[in-house]
């Protein structure tokens, strides 16, 4: 199971987060299939984490070709 450590808004401290689904890569909730939902193992607070690695995405600057 995947896990990560983040600041939990519920606990107010650094906690271990795990994903809800057994197969987080195949989440039915999002088009990409990568579930963004994580849960604190201590208090159960959910957190949406975008852990998708940078896949050579655009840099946000669009330039009009003349
Ligand atoms: Zn917590
Ligand atoms: Zn999901």
Architecture overview:
The chain is flat. Strand 1 and strand 2 (14-19) form a beta hairpin. With 66 residues, the chain is mainly beta. The protein is built from no helices and 4 strands. It has a domain at 3-48. Bound molecules: zinc ion (ZN) (2 copies). One zinc ion binds next to loops.
How many alpha or pi helices? Answer: 0
Helix content: under 10%
The coarse overall form would be flat
Low-pLDDT segments: none
The bound ligands are:
zinc ion
Beta-strand percent range: 25-35%
User: Strand-and-helix sequence, N→C?
Assistant: EEEE
Please tally the β strands and state the result: 4
Q: State the end-to-end distance.
A: 50 Å
Main sheet record: 4 strands, antiparallel
* Strand order across the largest sheet: 1-2-3-4
Q: Provide the structure class.
A: mainly beta
Radius of gyration: 16 Å
Q: Please, what is the oligomeric state?
A: single chain
The mean pLDDT is 80
